[in-house]
Amino acid sequence: MKLVIQRVAEASVSVGGTTIGSIGRGFLVLVGVGKEDTEAVADKYLKKLLGLRIFEDENGKTNLSLADVGGELLLVSQFTLYADCSHGNRPGFTNAGNPAEAERLYEYMIRRAAEQVPVVEKGQFGADMQVSLVNDGPFTIILENL
Prior knowledge:
By secondary structure, this protein is an alpha/beta fold. It has one domain: D-tyrosyl-tRNA(Tyr) deacylase (D-tyrosyl-trna(Tyr) Deacylase, Chain: A, 3-Layer(bba) Sandwich), CATH 3.50.80.10. The protein has two helices and eight strands. The strands form two sheets. Strands 1, 2, 3, 6, 7 and 8 form a six-stranded mixed beta sheet that branches. Helix 2 links the parallel strand 6 and strand 7. Helix 1 packs across helix 2. The longest helix has 16 residues.
C-alpha cells in the first residue's frame, strides 16, 4: 500500500464536472493498493495516517493529529502510485493490485476511517477524476513500506 497524504485547507474531487466529495481542513489522501495488500495492511496504514501529528499546535510545532483539530478526510484511489518507470519511458503497473481487490480494500479503508473520523469523503474508484486542493504548508507525506 502507498499513501500520499497532503495537509489541506480544502480539497475536492469531481467526476464529469460534478463534485462528488469535498472537505475543509484535513487530509487529502491518494491511496494506492498493491497486489499483496490485505485488510491487515490497510488497518496498519489507516492507524498510522490517523495518528500523524502534522498540524501545528499553539506554539507552531507540528504536534496535533487530525482528530485534535477536528479535521476531515478525503480518500481518492490512485493506482498510478504503483507506476514502475525503471525500464523505458512508459510506466508499468504490474505491482498495482487487481482492480476488484483494490476497490474492495479502498472501500474497506473508507468504512474503517468513517468509524473514527466524523467527515470522510471519497473519490470514485476507476473514474477519471479531477482533484482540487489548497495544500496547507505545503505539507505532503508519503507512507509506504510500513
